[in-house]
What we know:
Blueprint: E1 3-6, E2 9-12, H1 14-47, H2 51-85, H3 95-113, H4 118-123, H5 128-152, H6 159-169
Antiparallel strand pairs: 1-2
Helix pairs in contact: 1-2, 1-5, 2-3, 3-5
Amino acid sequence: MTITVRKTRVQLSRTTRQWWLTGHIIVSVGLLGDSAGFLAVAIRSVTATDAGFSDASWQLLDMFAFVFGIPLSALALITGLVLGWSSRWGVLRYPWVITKLGLILSVMLVGTFVLPGSDALQQGGPGLETRLIAGAAWDVAALATATGLAVFKPGGIRPSVKADVGSHRGGGQAP
Length: 175
């Protein structure tokens, strides 16, 4: 594994980068699958008429969150940052990369502050079921959008980065 540092960019060997990219794809797709499964179970638990079934579903949602959601979110963020720092895309250079970063952070924040835990759901309360479904739906939509951004890579380089790159080359023109 060869790593060399140039300015603010870490250069990974081709094989090392491929391993990081493979890991990033695996954890990101896994997180999307976990979120879709979470949404399906949440919808089913909210519409259930059997209280025992709902309680068991809410405990299952806790397992989805703690066993899969939290570790996969953290790994998706870490692998994405490593790939950004080690590629021409950068982390804050292109709008689609910045948007993907914002989306994964929003998924983490929704999981922390919006989605209620099983204890809260069992005790009940106004708006908890709505928060559960809305938060889970947001996570699926955000992660699906991030996947699309990774494939299509819309938009060019940020204007402020373009000007900075051009000034370092002496011509004022972006590459």
